[in-house]
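Quick note —
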Amino acid sequence: MLRRILAGGLALSATGLVLATGSAASADELKAPYARAGAVVDADGKLNLSKNIVATWRAATGKYCVQVAQDVDVTEAVIQITARHALRLPHIAFRNPSATCHRDNTITVNVFNPHTARLADSGFDLSIS
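Predicted structure written out below.
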């Protein structure tokens, strides 16, 4: 079941993740009561909103790193990623450890353009439960 975009936020019913995307929000204000961690990441790797996320960065075209707080074990987690660009397909390339990200408790996210089958930049939303 897909919910519609609401004024000031995006609701994802599959994970119970609710992202408050108001203009005054900081990286500490992600409202996700049923997620252990979550992030809203821009195409340049900038972290917009987060819960239990230490850092995010763009490692290369279409390759992103998401470092999760130590109290959330990414090796045992269910992770869901949604691209914010309609023509992009994100997937988790590696969980901790990652040759791309080189930090503990980090997830590597690769984003592809399905028409070219090549890596492509795109923002994405991530939920860890």
